[in-house]
């Protein structure tokens, strides 16, 4: 069966001009989506701190992971980010810009320690852990 032009409708759509455009965020500067370099730097700071603190517990890998999770869960609601986030000039907020609350950091961290959700991103450079928690990591 033959169909006329435009039968399938619009198959493609315009890609966003920059990460965060669909969320109404600026291209760069304060309030823009945090880029990969800052994210990795913050991750190294937080994991390094957990690694050093775990020395008191015999360098147990599970202790390192538990301490890393505790750092995330405690500091995200209180400082709008972990110590690594704050050192690298980042802050974590809800998509609507409000305070993240208490349960979002728990969900986000649980998915972050699994690793896979954190490395699958959308066009706005939000990992699945951020999408599930309804959060976005921004430049401060």
TrEMBL record:
* Tagged with keyword Mitochondrion: no
- Keywords for the protein's UniProt record, in alphabetical order: Cell membrane, Membrane, Transmembrane, Transmembrane helix
For whether the record's keyword set contains Lipid biosynthesis, the answer is: no
**Cross-referenced Pfam families:** RDD
Membrane topology according to the record:
Multi-pass membrane protein
* GO terms under cellular component: plasma membrane
- Region Disordered, as annotated, extends over 1-24
Q: Which residues form the RDD domain?
A: 62-134
Q: Report TM segments.
A: 63-81, 102-121
**Localisation per UniProt entry:** Cell membrane
Q: Which InterPro entries match?
A: Pra-immunoreactive, RDD, UCP021697
Q: Where is the signal peptide?
A: none
Biased composition, class Basic and acidic residues, residue ranges: 14-24
Taking the first listed entry, what is the main subcellular location of this protein, grouped into a coarse class?
membrane
Q: What is this protein called?
A: RDD family protein
Provenance organism: Microbacterium terrae
